[in-house]
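Subject: for your reference before the review

Hello V.,

The reviewers asked for a structural picture of the protein, and I figured it would be easier to keep everything in one thread rather than splitting it across files. Below is the amino acid sequence we used in the manuscript, unchanged from the supplementary table.
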Amino acid sequence: MNTTPRNIQVWDRFVRFFHWSLVSCVLLNYFAIDDGETVHQWLGYFASALVVARIVWGFIGSKHARFTDFFPTPTRLRHHLQAMRAGKADPHPGHNPLGALMMLTLIALVLGLGVTGYLQGTDMFWGEEWLQEVHETLASTLIGLAGLHALAAIVMSRVERTNLILAMITGVKKQG
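And here is what came back from the structure prediction:
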């Protein structure tokens, strides 16, 4: 058995820029900036633009940025869950299937926030309470799942013996 650590270039510069920029937008908009302020709106638009760019990058980007590398198909999810239940290692260079499912859910929530935020400023939906409530629910769900995502990254770092947080900063996963 080879115990030599392996360095794998996983997340390219765009993916890392996207990730930390999106984290910044979400945290600022949720915790620091009042709803309805112009800065809140522009950060929301920027977050939505980041997600659209990431979706495009998921088709044309580097190997581990492409959806085909990590898309959480039912088969991939089933295999990953079976390995986890059996206590077996199931390493993935990029996102594991559960991480991929979470990532796709988070970007869908950000897009939902962008759409509901934009609609609140239109004549058709101005002052609609139900839309404000949907926007707030999406935001709270995003924060909750982002927290779960961060916790899972910490737990999986221990399980896989690789620092996933550092890898999202440097782009390199050190395994082994």
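For the response letter, the relevant points are probably these. The longest strand covers residues 6-9. The beta strands are 6-9, 172-175.

Happy to draft the paragraph if you're swamped.

O.
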